[in-house]
Write a sequence for this structure.
């Protein structure tokens, strides 16, 4: 196959997606190097590193979450362990989004047709997309290597670690390229590849906890088995490279042979009538938010179920290690409280993510042009906003309640103790005001300055970063205070403080009111 | 509804988006029961005007009334009596066409079920297909059916036939006529002249956020020139000096006198008398098409600022 128009296609991708790509990889590099630098600043002596290593390797809970890090008794090992959870999702996401954006999305929107009408061979757009994605991944890995070296990690180990993450992203880029050929919409590309990622994460967790070959079934396992801070197995990089290369080659081959706009998986016809429920404002709002709700709920349930199932190992590790229990402040009458508190914080972040995305889909309705016809009927603006607000808040409560119940049940099952439903659900509920505050901020942006809505995601990223890594990295108090989740009081380990919750709720309500006033007064649509 | 009260009345509307002046003193009046053509080039302010009229955006200045009420304050109440098809039709990709129809119908306060079924047939729409699998034309049909099947007093259609094939366009025109016969008022924004010519009772032409001219098609035509080609037996006396005549050319062909000229509406009758006196052999008189009207209105040199400058004789002679 002759790659006619490859250079032109690379130019098109670069011109149309450079901004998004640059923001993506800069944010990724910043968080990776930032975490490494914070760890390096914190674990300055071999003793400190040793204490950390001893703490996280007792029991299986943290192994399941962050992976089994070989050579954890080193600075690099601590960095790998600390970033394990985030990197397991961010790097595959990098590969997926870089490819999905320039392949099926372009085809779906009809831009691919315009391109293929020119002097560009059919398989070239996906080839160019893969080349561009590989280049972006390479730059990210290179920058990460340099960052690690600057933090004091030996060069060859830094390079292997970065390469293991880069090849992980590449494998998922290849997967996305193939999925882009066989599903009809970019939504399908994301949905299927995220499903593969979730399975990969579970397999890696199971394999690491059981110390079996199961780890090798997971792309995340391949990266881990490179063991950059242990025996350094460079050859394992060949596995993701081969798999990614094979998937890419298959994608390019199919792209060259199939019809434009075609796919293996096609949409089926549906009902010719809308139900009374769907016709109601709340019914349509429920439909609009259901996909996001299901996705975030599934994430929360995976975390809750997995953590709960590992509760016994976790608590066992803590009770058998007074030093660690002390460090975590867990020498209380309820040893499982500490780990319920950690899990509830994770669930709170997931619920907050749902809230921001749900508010974002209001903006999506507006920019897509669907809000205008909706408001030119008998539905008032406040009626529309109220229906959506109700559905979003209900979804938030569902995520918190259902995953709390699952967490309580799986914990009780794992520990063999009585169900502490009230403590666990109460802890989850205590985070609601904090979640609503971030959602309210996003809603206020939508009401007042809809174009600035991405700032809502920035706020979410900040809150998530502080919540996940803030305590571990011992960030300054005022930084921790920026996240509303900090003020909840870490229940059920700590006691819930009433006053901060009242303040958070009031602020959330205030932001909601501001959003309503702003939305009532502004023009629709606003570009 | 009293016949005295216009359905839509906008006076000296202005709307600025930052430094951009989208509307610059626009006037628009739509009377009950009429199909009002709203013509203008891309970016003239048609969609902005419609959004102000619907209360989706607020005018920066001027006055606007919809059914005698303030659309910004009473949007939802006033919308009970109208249905709207936006310029860029956007639907929910995961719903089927039929589901979108019902959702849009519910938005407008209900659809006439018989008409819904009839229109689906007429526009040959498959309502079980998902919107994301529809072509642009099919998405347009969904929005059109939803509006045309609604029991309302006013239809606001913003470039409704973009994406429709000629057959469907024909069907659309028939349905709009039927709706008008039932007493429905229609505001039809378009830059397709044929469509407006076929449907509209009155027309407003706007440019750069201002109304350039407004009136019935007949009135507008009066201000423009008719092309006449006459073959007479004798020489028409004094024709060249008749007021209102221009581009006059005459020659002898096969013993007849072949004359070509253009004439404004006010003097057409007098000229016909003169031709008749010279004994008409063949005669073609071509009224100005809306195209000519439209092009002329947009031509800056011919119409500097005022609406009445359309095709005046002295301008034509230049």
């Amino acid at each position: 196959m002759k790659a006619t128009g490859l250079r032109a296609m690379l130019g098109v991708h670069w011109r149309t997606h450079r901004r998004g790509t640059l923001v993506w990889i800069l944010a990724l590099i910043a968080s990776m190097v930032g975490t490494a630098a914070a760890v390096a600043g914190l674990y300055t002596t071999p003793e400190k590193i040793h204490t950390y290593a001893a703490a996280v390797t007792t029991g299986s809970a943290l192994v399941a979450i962050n992976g089994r890090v070989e050579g954890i008794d080193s600075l690099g090992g601590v960095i790998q362990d600390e970033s394990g959870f985030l990197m397991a999702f961010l790097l595959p996401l990098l590969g997926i989004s870089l490819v999905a954006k320039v392949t099926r999305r372009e085809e779906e929107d009809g831009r691919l047709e315009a391109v293929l009408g020119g002097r560009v061979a059919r398989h070239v757009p996906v080839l160019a997309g893969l080349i561009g994605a590989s280049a972006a991944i390479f730059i990210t890995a290179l920058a990460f290597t340099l960052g690690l070296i600057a933090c004091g990690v030996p060069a060859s180990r830094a390079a292997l670690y970065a390469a293991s993450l880069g090849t992980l992203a590449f494998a998922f880029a290849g997967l996305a390229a193939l999925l882009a050929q066989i599903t009809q919409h970019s939504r399908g590309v994301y949905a299927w590849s995220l499903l593969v990622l979730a399975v990969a994460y579970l397999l890696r967790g199971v394999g690491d906890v059981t110390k079996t070959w199961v780890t090798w079934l997971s792309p995340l396992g391949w990266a881990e088995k490179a063991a950059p801070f242990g025996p350094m197995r460079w050859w394992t990089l060949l596995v993701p490279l081969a798999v990614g290369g094979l998937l890419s080659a298959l994608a390019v081959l199919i792209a060259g042979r199939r019809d434009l706009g075609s796919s293996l998986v096609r949409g089926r016809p549906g009902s010719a009538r809308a139900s009374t429920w769907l016709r109601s404002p709340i019914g349509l709002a429920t439909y609009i938010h259901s996909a996001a709700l299901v996705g975030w709920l599934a994430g929360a349930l995976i975390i809750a179920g997995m953590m709960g199932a590992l509760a016994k190992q976790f608590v066992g590790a803590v009770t058998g290690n007074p030093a660690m229990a002390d460090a975590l402040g867990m020498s209380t009458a309820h040893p499982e409280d500490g780990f319920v508190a950690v899990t509830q914080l994770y669930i709170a972040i997931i619920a907050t993510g749902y809230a921001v995305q749900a508010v974002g889909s209001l903006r999506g309705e507006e920019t897509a042009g669907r809000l205008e016809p909706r408001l030119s009927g008998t539905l008032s603006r406040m009626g529309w906003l109220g229906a959506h607000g109700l559905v979003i808040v209900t979804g938030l409560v569902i995520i918190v309640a259902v995953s709390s119940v699952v967490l309580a049940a799986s914990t009780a099952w794992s520990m063999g103790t009585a169900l502490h439903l009230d403590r666990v659900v109460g802890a989850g509920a205590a985070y609601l005001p904090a979640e609503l505050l971030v959602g309210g901020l996003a809603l206020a942006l939508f009401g007042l300055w809809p174009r600035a809505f991405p700032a809502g995601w920035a706020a979410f990223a900040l809150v998530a970063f502080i919540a996940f890594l803030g305590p571990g990295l011992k960030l300054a108090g005022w930084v921790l205070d920026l996240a509303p989740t900090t003020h909840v009081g870490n229940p059920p380990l700590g006691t819930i403080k009433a006053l901060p919750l009242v303040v958070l709720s009031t602020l959330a309500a205030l932001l909601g009111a501001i959003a309503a006033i702003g939305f009532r007064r502004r023009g629709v649509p606003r570009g | 509804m009293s016949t005295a009260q216009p359905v839509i009345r906008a006076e000296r509307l202005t709307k600025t988006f930052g430094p951009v002046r989208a509307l610059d003193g626009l006037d628009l009046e739509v009377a009950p029961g009429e199909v009002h053509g709203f013509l203008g080039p891309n970016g003239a302010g048609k969609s902005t005007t419609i959004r102000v009229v619907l209360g989706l955006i607020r005018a920066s200045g001027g006055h606007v009334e919809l059914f005698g009420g303030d659309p910004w304050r009473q949007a939802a109440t006033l919308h009970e009596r109208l249905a709207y098809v936006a310029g860029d039709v956007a639907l929910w990709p995961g719903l089927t066409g039929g589901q979108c129809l019902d959702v849009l119908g519910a938005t407008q306060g209900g659809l006439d079920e018989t008409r819904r079924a009839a229109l689906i047939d007429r526009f040959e729409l498959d309502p079980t297909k998902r919107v994301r699998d529809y072509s642009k034309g099919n998405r347009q049909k969904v929005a059109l059916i939803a509006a045309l099947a609604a029991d309302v007093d006013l239809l606001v259609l913003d470039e409704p036939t973009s994406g429709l094939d000629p057959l469907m366009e024909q069907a659309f025109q028939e349905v709009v006529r039927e709706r008008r016969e039932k007493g429905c008022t229609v505001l039809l924004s378009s830059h397709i002249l044929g469509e407006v010519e076929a449907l509209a009772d009155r027309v407003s032409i706007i440019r750069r956020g201002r109304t350039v001219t407004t009136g019935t098609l007949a009135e507008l035509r009066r201000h423009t020139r008719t092309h006449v080609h006459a073959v007479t037996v004798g020489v028409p006396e004094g024709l060249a000096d008749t007021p209102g005549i221009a581009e006059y050319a005459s020659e002898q062909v096969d013993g007849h006198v072949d004359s070509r000229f253009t004439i404004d509406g006010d003097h057409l009758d007098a000229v016909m008398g003169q031709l008749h006196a010279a004994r008409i052999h063949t005669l073609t008189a071509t009224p100005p098409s809306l195209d000519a009207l439209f092009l002329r209105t947009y031509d800056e040199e011919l119409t500097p600022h005022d609406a009445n400058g359309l095709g005046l004789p002295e301008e034509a002679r230049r």
Remarks:
- The domain at 220-317 of chain B is CATH 3.30.70.120 (Alpha-Beta Plaits).
- The longest strand of chain B covers residues 20-30.
